[in-house]
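Why does residue order matter? Because the sequence determines the fold. Keep that principle in mind as you read this record.
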Amino acid sequence: RCDAYVGTHKNSKDHKPLGRLANAELRGMRKAAHRAFDPLWRRKMEREKITKNAARAAAYRWLADQMTLDKHACHIGDFDLDQCRKVVEVCTKPETRNPTQPKEATA
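Structure:
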């Protein structure tokens, strides 16, 4: 048994998938990537008093730049294991977590 599945967006009439099919190991790494990444856009939202969508979009643009990906190809739900590990690495660097860093340098 492969144990692979993908979740779908809430309130999606056509059950739009949240990402690509993933086994248990990849789902765990995607959760770890989100645990590292999500606080960045949440802090930006609070710090700059912007909407959740604006903060997430800016954070994903920043992440795409950090990972040298096209911004349209940068979504944790589509990442493989190595990309998820890279998200955790990039998002947990001390300079990324440092709140005194200039705003434009962080998500």
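Confidence is low (pLDDT under 50) at residues 99-105.
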